[in-house]
Amino acid sequence: MSEPLLRVRDLKTYFVTEQGSGTARAVDGVSFEVYPGETLGLVGESGCGKTVTSLSLLRLIPEPPGHIRPGSFIEFEGRNLLTLAPRELRAIRGNQIAMIFQEPLTSLNPVLTVGDQIAEAAILHQGLTRRAARRRTIDMLRLVGIPDPAERVDHYPHQMSGGMRQRVMIAMALVCHPKLLIADEPTTALDVTIQAQILELLDRLQVELGMAVLLITHDLGVVAGAADRVVVMYAGQVAEQAPTGQLFARPLHPYTEGLLASVPRLDAPAARGRTRLHSIPGQVPAATAWPEGCRFHPRCPYAWDRCRQEEPPLLDAGTGEPGAHSVRCWLLTDPRRRRLHA
Amino acid sequence: MTSAPSPSAPATVTLAAPLVEVSGLVKHFPGARGFFGLGRARAVIRAVDGVSFAIAAGRTLGLVGESGCGKTTVGRSMLRLIEPDAGQVTIGGQHVLTLGGRELRALRRRMQIVFQDPYGSLNPRMTVRQALAEPLAIHRLARGAAAERRISALLEEVGLDPSFAKSYPHQLSGGQRQRVGIARALSVEPQFLVLDEPVSALDVSVQAQVLNLLAELQQHRRLTFLFIAHDLAVVKHIADDVAVMYLGRIVEAAPAPALYARPRHPYTTALLSAVPVPDPRAQHQRIVLPGEVPSPAAPPPGCPFHPRCPHPKKNERCRTEPPELREVAPGQLAACHFAEDPL
Predict the structure, then answer these.
(1) Quick one: closest CA in A to B172, which residue?
(2) Spatial distance between the Cα atoms of B247 and B23, rounded to a whole number of angstroms
(3) Among B66, B236, B283, whose Cβ lies nearest the Cβ of A193?
(4) How do residues A45-95 score in pLDDT, each as one tens digit?
(5) pLDDT reported for residue A274
(6) Which chain B residue is nearest to residue A201, measuring alpha carbons?
(7) Closest chain B residue to A269 measured between Cα atoms?
């Protein structure tokens, strides 16, 4: 494979909580790479650290209460973003790395027209004149499928529907043709038919603009359809990472396995007579008190003594290239236990 | 060995008299005025525009559709949390919409609602015990030690340790709060529950726990459910029958297996095709509908779905003549001129 575009090594983002209940280790030693042109899915449930990870990449974590720990390393095209001067970082943020968020209404300025908001980045980063930026903006609105772009450019966010606003957000993110787009739950607030439109749009734009996408979502269906590789997070760590096909066909971490089995599926046979859904017992622990040993062990059906005492590292699954599929689970050292359990 | 008779009831038990019946339900909201109440009022919002269905005792009807289709207004109108403009709602033959005062309160013992966001529906200053004791007191069902016993039993029934009675809502996780919301609805021993997006705010692993709980409770207590949701996979899992709404009307209704196996309305087909499937090998062709749902203040003439309809046979008739909701296959209703020739 080529050189990664983004390389994250041992990222730790902690928060000092109020009332002295301790330090929340929201992201606790996360490593992954994003290669040029690919889509990497970052999945997990609330509180797993996926959003804090994405905000850390662009140093958007409010400090205090948060801070990125020394020893963390975020390299974009060979430069460590964590040691850049604010001015250098601003030249990358919104220009070479762009971001879209879940809720477009709160991320758009209500008193500026959508055109002014899209044009801002082009003027700031690429030195376009107002007139050239306006032309680029209208082109972008057309590209993201907004009808009557020459008229819509002067509209305000409240004059648009949720789906249209998300298109505006995408136009704003892509106006500088970034190399990496971080999309944090880009379709979660949208209805399923509008979600289909936006996913289709992102897919098309990625090919046309040749950018890499870091897609952060809780929806395993969205990931299955859009990502080349998947990183599953649990309790501030990477639990498993694998090429998408392999992860869904042969999940190796008990958490991934449980998560996939919990999803009610449209392609399952119609379930008359009330089959029970698989569910993972208990709930996600608090970031101020991750369990000892393996962080998943209190909810894991396979856990044994070692899991309670010793934290597993990311182990290579031994399929495909080294590091292609890795799993943070002691079962990999003792696969017999999985069979015994079954 | 000879084959034993199947213990489960046949799939079609609609011969039993329905417990809940809704017919011709209409709710129009007045159009908003401009800033400061100035200007002319805009056209009325036809949120619910003639909705009819029936649910047999012990069964679950899934009511699905996208934001603004009117599904939540239907659920709230049935309990008179919103007063509908026209139509009839009966439970066990008793008319709901004409009752007043004391009779209405008595009726509310029979029908309860569980909301999407239990954080918004539980009073943050009340402990779980107080939240559960309130309906018991209002309906004069239990006080003192008897109430205490009922509260403990309810918490255990929804899978919470009775020690949770002392907790405040903010001390609970989303899944635990939803369990309290369910316990509160069950405290008056209703026959019928409106479940309005009860699992959409929950993570998948917790969502599965709550769906399993609802299925168990339904069986043990012989409950009848109206399950309102936008997630078609969740509805497939839990519902016996499904009704699909678009712009305030039901466009298709059928037993779940038939609806998912062979949808007759192009909107249902498109909705099903748009659901992301968690299997990279099973990626199918998505039908991406053009445009967005029109405003319920100005629904299109003819078939309200025609501006977005991908059916190749769409013609002038669709633009002028609204299709009736009619039976196109045994037990399967659809409001489409081409329902015999589905997508």
Answers:
(1) A283
(2) 17
(3) B66
(4) 888 999 999 999 999 998 888 999 999 999 999 999 999 999 999 999 988
(5) 59
(6) B288
(7) B257
DSSP annotation of B299: P
Distance between B79 CA and the closest CA of chain A, angstroms: 26
Q: Determine if the peptide bond prior to A64 is cis (ω within 30°).
A: yes
Contact A283 B206 (CB under 8 A): yes
Between helix B204-221 and helix B174-186 the angle, nearest 10°, is 20
**Residue B336 in tokens:** 């489409």
| B219 and chain A in contact, CB less than 8 A | yes
Are β-strands B332-334 and B18-29 bridged in parallel, bridged antiparallel, or unpaired? unpaired
Cβ–Cβ below 8 Å for A225 and B260: no
Compute the distance between CA of residue B255 and CA of residue A140 in angstroms, rounded to an integer.
Answer: 45
Two tokens at B289?
A: 């509908």
Residue bearing tokens 């305000």: A156
User: DSSP per residue over B263-293, as a string?
Assistant: --SHHHHHHHHHSPPS-GGG--------S-P
Instruction: Name the token pair of A45.
Output: 């449930």
* Predicted model pTM: 0.88
**Beta strand B18-29 pairing with B94-95:** unpaired
- The residue type at B320: T
Question: How many Cα atoms within 13 Å fall on the side-chain side of residue A7?
Answer: 10
Q: Rounded to 5, what percent of chain B is helix, strand, coil?
A: 35, 20, 45
